[in-house]
Write a structure and sequence with these properties.
The chain is 31% helix and 38% strand. By secondary structure, it is of the alpha+beta class. It has three domains: 78 residues, no CATH class; 170 residues, Efflux pump adaptor protein, beta barrel domain (Elongation Factor Tu (Ef-tu), domain 3), CATH 2.40.30; 197 residues, no CATH class. It has six helices and 27 strands. A six-stranded antiparallel beta barrel has the order 2-15-19-17-16-20. Strands 1-25-26-27 form a four-stranded antiparallel β-sheet, with no helix packed on it. A four-stranded antiparallel β-sheet has the order 3-14-10-5.
Length: 477
């Protein structure tokens, strides 16, 4: 069959026109159209140009980088935080109840004194002299009470032995009655009354012995109580005495006494008895450098379950922000208290000895150490992903990322112990950084730049870290 060459030459090709050919065709049509059509075509072409650019940008790949950390061995400490105040300072107040004029001052601030050492002499007024005399009498009576309690112990001891012998005698009479029908005293048979008397006598002697024994056993407590009253009476006498003495050993501070100074007693009248009550006034302090401080911090009902006596504590004070102190948990008050619907439990902390001045009511922050693991393999907690009870980490090795299942130990706010699944030195991924390659330094020009309009060049950088995207470029953040 013969093909007509003329027909082949005149038949249009079925090849599809290229994008460039289409754009050139559109360009030529603009010059043959009216101005209204030119504007419409121009808008269409600009939209096509923007779309092409967006397609090109979206096809560019993003670059992923990783932040990593090595699995290392060390000591992991787990602690609970609490805040509170110093409840007992390492100083003793120097107090007095006297009124009068200061006659002599024997020490100055900064001096080291011993317990009972003279601090000052005061010339008492008449009212103060009466209180001093009464306090002295009370002290003498207290010392006599101690001697009496000691004597009572000896008497109670003798009475106890007498009562014991009485019980033995009554028991013997009772046994004879059981063994014989004849009363050895009357040489006749026991009457019913005689038998009852013997039984009752044995019962009464046993009760009398029990009372005597209790008095003897309690004698030591009575002596201790009497001695405590002597100490209180002596202290009261010292506070009412013309001679002010140091109640404890230490260093004098804040001493507010000077010769010729008038001191006045603080007195109030009791609303019930009408008696005048004189209270102490503080005239100085004695700092005990070896004294221990007490702090109290409040914990939540969740944290308090992990706190026990004798746990180590690290303490900071607002007053000494550059220093750290140590101590231990002394007691945990499990009764707790409720305020505004919130339950808190106070924990008493005994501080180790310090050589600086710390006063009651100073604010403290405590870290109570609840657990310590030594020679433990640890990684940052951010490297661990847990899903459905299974924990995994990503390991980076030779620029490759693999996932490993791990077993977890204890953890604190930043580190977690790994008990299995990792080796020391393994490099784990802590976060992923995605960088979008959208930066362009060259301008994108419309194919129709020769017809009076140009597209503006643009640039931008997009960074993504753990799901947070930061946009850059002109006018960006």
């Amino acid at each position: 069959m013969r093909i007509d060459d003329n027909k082949v030459k005149n038949k249009p090709l079925s090849l599809k026109p290229s994008l460039k050919d289409k754009l050139i065709g559109l360009k030529n049509s603009i010059f043959s159209a009216s101005w209204k059509k030119k504007i419409i075509f121009l808008v269409i072409l600009m939209a096509i140009g923007v779309g092409v650019r967006l397609i090109i940008i979206s096809t560019k790949k993003s670059k992923v980088t990783y932040e990593t950390a090595k699995a290392e061995k060390g000591t992991l400490t787990v602690s609970i935080s609490g805040s509170g105040t110093i409840t007992s300072g390492n100083n003793t107040s120097l107090t007095t109840k006297v009124s009068g004029i200061v006659k002599k001052v024997y020490v100055t601030n900064g001096d080291t004194v011993t317990k009972g050492q003279k601090i000052a002499e005061v010339t008492l007024d008449d009212y103060a002299k009466e209180r001093q005399a009464a306090a002295w009498v009370a002290y003498l009576q207290a010392t006599e009470a101690v001697k009496q309690s000691i004597a009572d112990k000896t008497t109670n001891d003798i009475n106890m032995w007498k009562a014991r012998q009485t019980v033995l005698d009554a028991q013997e009479a009772y046994d004879d009655m059981l063994d014989n029908d004849t009363n050895p005293t009357t040489n006749a048979s026991y009457t019913a009354g005689e038998r009852m008397i013997i039984i009752k006598t044995l019962d009464e002697t046993k009760k009398a012995f029990s009372v005597s024994e209790s008095k003897y056993l309690n004698a030591d407590a009575d002596i201790t109580n009497s001695n405590a009253k002597v100490v209180a009476a002596l202290r009261d006498y010292q506070e009412n005495s013309a001679t002010i003495v140091a109640p404890s050993a230490g260093v004098i501070s804040d001493l507010a006494l000077a010769e010729g100074l008038v001191v006045n007693a603080n007195s109030t009248t009791s609303s019930t008895s009408g008696a005048t009550i004189v209270s102490s006034q503080t005239v100085g302090k004695i700092n005990n450098i070896n004294g221990q401080l007490i702090a109290s911090v409040s914990l939540s009902e969740i944290d308090v379950l992990r706190v026990k006596a004798n746990q180590k504590v690290v303490i900071t004070l607002d007053a000494y922000s550059d220093k750290t102190f140590t101590g231990k948990v002394l007691a945990v008050n499990t009764t707790g208290s409720v305020s505004s619907g919130v339950t808190s439990y106070p924990v008493t902390i005994l501080l180790d000895s310090v050589s600086i001045d710390i006063y009651p009511n100073m604010a403290v922050n405590a870290e109570i150490i609840t657990d310590i693991v030594t020679d433990a393999l640890m990684v940052p907690t951010t490297a661990i992903t847990t899903s459905n009870g299974t924990s995994t980490v990503q390991i980076k090795k030779d620029e490759k990322i693999t996932t490993a299942q791990v077993e977890l130990g204890i953890a604190n706010d930043s580190q977690t112990v790994i008990t299995s699944g990792l080796n020391e030195g393994d490099e784990v991924v802590t976060s992923t950084i995605t960088v979008d390659n959208t930066t362009s330094t060259s301008s994108t020009t419309s194919p129709f730049s020769g017809i009076g309009t140009n597209s503006r060049s643009s640039s931008g950088t997009s960074n993504s870290r753990t799901g947070v995207q930061i946009m850059g470029g002109p006018g960006g953040l």
